[in-house]
From TrEMBL:
Domain Cupin type-2: 60-111
InterPro entries: Cupin_2, RmlC-like_jellyroll, RmlC_Cupin_sf, UCP019307_cupin, YjiB-like
Pfam families (alphabetical): Cupin_2
Species annotation: Paenibacillus nicotianae
Protein name: Cupin domain-containing protein
Amino acid sequence: MTDHSVQTYYFEPNHGIPNHPTLPVLLYPQALQAQPADTESIFNQNHWLNSWTNGVFDYHHYHSNAHEVLGVISGHVTVQLGGEEGQSVTLYAGDVVVLPAGTGHKRISASSDFRMVGAYPDGMSYNTRTATETEKEHATALAEISHVPLPKMDPIYGPQGPLLQYWHSV
Protein backbone atom coordinates (compact mmCIF):
# COMPACT_ATOMS: atom_id res chain seq x y z
CA MET A 1 0.00 0.00 0.00
CA THR A 2 1.21 3.45 -0.82
CA ASP A 3 0.36 6.77 0.78
CA HIS A 4 -3.03 7.98 1.91
CA SER A 5 -3.61 10.41 -0.97
CA VAL A 6 -7.32 10.80 -1.53
CA GLN A 7 -9.39 12.73 -4.03
CA THR A 8 -12.92 13.78 -3.04
CA TYR A 9 -15.97 14.33 -5.22
CA TYR A 10 -19.32 15.77 -4.14
CA PHE A 11 -22.43 15.37 -6.27
CA GLU A 12 -25.83 17.02 -6.18
CA PRO A 13 -28.98 15.03 -6.98
CA ASN A 14 -28.95 14.37 -10.70
CA HIS A 15 -31.75 13.14 -13.00
CA GLY A 16 -33.29 10.84 -10.40
CA ILE A 17 -29.96 9.75 -8.89
CA PRO A 18 -29.99 11.10 -5.31
CA ASN A 19 -26.25 10.91 -4.58
CA HIS A 20 -25.31 11.32 -0.94
CA PRO A 21 -26.38 14.62 0.63
CA THR A 22 -23.24 15.08 2.76
CA LEU A 23 -20.56 12.39 2.20
CA PRO A 24 -18.03 12.68 -0.62
CA VAL A 25 -16.93 9.94 -2.99
CA LEU A 26 -13.35 9.03 -2.05
CA LEU A 27 -10.84 8.03 -4.75
CA TYR A 28 -7.59 6.42 -3.63
CA PRO A 29 -5.39 6.57 -6.75
CA GLN A 30 -2.88 3.72 -7.03
CA ALA A 31 -3.47 2.75 -3.37
CA LEU A 32 -3.12 -0.95 -4.18
CA GLN A 33 -1.03 -0.64 -7.32
CA ALA A 34 1.69 -2.94 -5.95
CA GLN A 35 -0.82 -5.64 -5.03
CA PRO A 36 -4.09 -5.38 -6.99
CA ALA A 37 -4.62 -9.15 -6.72
CA ASP A 38 -4.88 -8.73 -2.92
CA THR A 39 -7.68 -6.14 -3.13
CA GLU A 40 -10.49 -8.42 -1.98
CA SER A 41 -8.55 -9.82 0.97
CA ILE A 42 -7.52 -6.29 2.06
CA PHE A 43 -11.14 -5.13 1.93
CA ASN A 44 -12.26 -8.23 3.86
CA GLN A 45 -9.54 -7.81 6.52
CA ASN A 46 -10.93 -4.32 7.12
CA HIS A 47 -14.50 -5.60 7.52
CA TRP A 48 -15.70 -4.62 4.06
CA LEU A 49 -17.36 -7.92 3.17
CA ASN A 50 -20.08 -9.49 1.01
CA SER A 51 -17.51 -9.05 -1.76
CA TRP A 52 -17.71 -9.96 -5.41
CA THR A 53 -15.45 -9.87 -8.47
CA ASN A 54 -16.89 -8.74 -11.79
CA GLY A 55 -17.41 -5.37 -13.50
CA VAL A 56 -19.70 -2.34 -13.32
CA PHE A 57 -23.16 -2.10 -14.86
CA ASP A 58 -23.37 -0.04 -18.05
CA TYR A 59 -26.34 1.98 -16.78
CA HIS A 60 -26.69 4.58 -14.03
CA HIS A 61 -27.49 2.89 -10.73
CA TYR A 62 -26.93 3.32 -7.01
CA HIS A 63 -27.32 1.54 -3.70
CA SER A 64 -29.60 3.34 -1.24
CA ASN A 65 -29.01 0.97 1.68
CA ALA A 66 -25.22 0.49 1.70
CA HIS A 67 -21.92 2.21 1.03
CA GLU A 68 -19.72 0.44 -1.54
CA VAL A 69 -16.00 0.14 -2.18
CA LEU A 70 -14.72 -0.74 -5.66
CA GLY A 71 -11.14 -1.76 -6.40
CA VAL A 72 -9.75 -2.40 -9.88
CA ILE A 73 -7.74 -5.62 -9.95
CA SER A 74 -6.91 -5.69 -13.67
CA GLY A 75 -7.22 -3.48 -16.71
CA HIS A 76 -8.96 -0.13 -16.61
CA VAL A 77 -12.48 1.29 -16.66
CA THR A 78 -14.03 4.68 -17.20
CA VAL A 79 -17.00 5.23 -14.91
CA GLN A 80 -19.46 8.07 -14.71
CA LEU A 81 -19.96 9.01 -11.06
CA GLY A 82 -22.89 11.03 -9.79
CA GLY A 83 -25.39 10.44 -12.61
CA GLU A 84 -25.81 11.80 -16.12
CA GLU A 85 -24.27 15.18 -15.28
CA GLY A 86 -21.67 13.73 -12.91
CA GLN A 87 -18.00 13.22 -13.59
CA SER A 88 -16.21 10.59 -15.67
CA VAL A 89 -13.18 9.03 -13.97
CA THR A 90 -10.81 6.45 -15.40
CA LEU A 91 -9.66 3.86 -12.88
CA TYR A 92 -6.66 1.57 -13.32
CA ALA A 93 -5.48 -1.59 -11.58
CA GLY A 94 -4.70 -0.62 -7.99
CA ASP A 95 -7.18 2.29 -7.84
CA VAL A 96 -9.92 2.18 -5.22
CA VAL A 97 -13.08 4.27 -5.01
CA VAL A 98 -15.52 4.43 -2.08
CA LEU A 99 -19.09 5.37 -2.94
CA PRO A 100 -21.36 6.62 -0.17
CA ALA A 101 -24.92 5.27 -0.29
CA GLY A 102 -26.95 6.93 -3.03
CA THR A 103 -24.02 7.68 -5.34
CA GLY A 104 -24.76 6.99 -8.99
CA HIS A 105 -22.23 5.05 -11.03
CA LYS A 106 -22.10 3.62 -14.54
CA ARG A 107 -19.47 1.96 -16.75
CA ILE A 108 -18.73 4.06 -19.83
CA SER A 109 -15.97 1.85 -21.25
CA ALA A 110 -13.47 -0.75 -20.09
CA SER A 111 -10.47 -2.69 -21.32
CA SER A 112 -11.03 -6.32 -22.27
CA ASP A 113 -9.08 -7.46 -19.19
CA PHE A 114 -10.99 -5.21 -16.75
CA ARG A 115 -12.00 -6.80 -13.44
CA MET A 116 -13.08 -5.18 -10.23
CA VAL A 117 -13.82 -6.18 -6.63
CA GLY A 118 -16.71 -4.66 -4.73
CA ALA A 119 -17.52 -4.91 -1.01
CA TYR A 120 -19.71 -3.37 1.70
CA PRO A 121 -19.07 -2.31 5.32
CA ASP A 122 -19.57 -5.24 7.68
CA GLY A 123 -20.98 -7.27 4.78
CA MET A 124 -24.18 -5.23 4.49
CA SER A 125 -26.66 -6.45 1.93
CA TYR A 126 -27.18 -3.97 -0.87
CA ASN A 127 -29.95 -3.11 -3.26
CA THR A 128 -29.59 -1.83 -6.81
CA ARG A 129 -31.70 1.15 -7.77
CA THR A 130 -31.91 3.11 -10.98
CA ALA A 131 -33.08 6.68 -11.38
CA THR A 132 -36.18 7.15 -9.27
CA GLU A 133 -39.26 8.17 -11.19
CA THR A 134 -41.86 8.97 -8.54
CA GLU A 135 -41.75 11.25 -5.52
CA LYS A 136 -42.55 8.27 -3.31
CA GLU A 137 -39.61 6.22 -4.69
CA HIS A 138 -37.31 9.20 -4.28
CA ALA A 139 -38.46 9.80 -0.70
CA THR A 140 -37.95 6.11 0.12
CA ALA A 141 -34.43 6.18 -1.31
CA LEU A 142 -33.53 9.33 0.63
CA ALA A 143 -34.82 7.77 3.86
CA GLU A 144 -32.77 4.62 3.25
CA ILE A 145 -29.63 6.65 2.49
CA SER A 146 -30.02 8.66 5.71
CA HIS A 147 -30.12 5.45 7.78
CA VAL A 148 -26.96 3.82 6.40
CA PRO A 149 -24.43 3.79 9.27
CA LEU A 150 -20.94 5.16 8.84
CA PRO A 151 -18.29 2.44 8.41
CA LYS A 152 -16.05 1.72 11.39
CA MET A 153 -13.07 0.92 9.15
CA ASP A 154 -11.44 2.36 6.06
CA PRO A 155 -11.54 -0.41 3.41
CA ILE A 156 -7.78 -0.20 2.80
CA TYR A 157 -6.17 1.31 5.88
CA GLY A 158 -8.47 0.03 8.64
CA PRO A 159 -9.27 2.01 11.79
CA GLN A 160 -6.79 4.82 11.06
CA GLY A 161 -7.67 5.38 7.41
CA PRO A 162 -8.68 8.59 5.67
CA LEU A 163 -12.30 7.50 5.21
CA LEU A 164 -12.80 7.97 8.94
CA GLN A 165 -11.41 11.51 8.75
CA TYR A 166 -13.42 12.50 5.68
CA TRP A 167 -16.73 10.88 6.56
CA HIS A 168 -16.84 11.04 10.35
CA SER A 169 -16.08 14.77 10.36
CA VAL A 170 -19.20 15.50 8.30
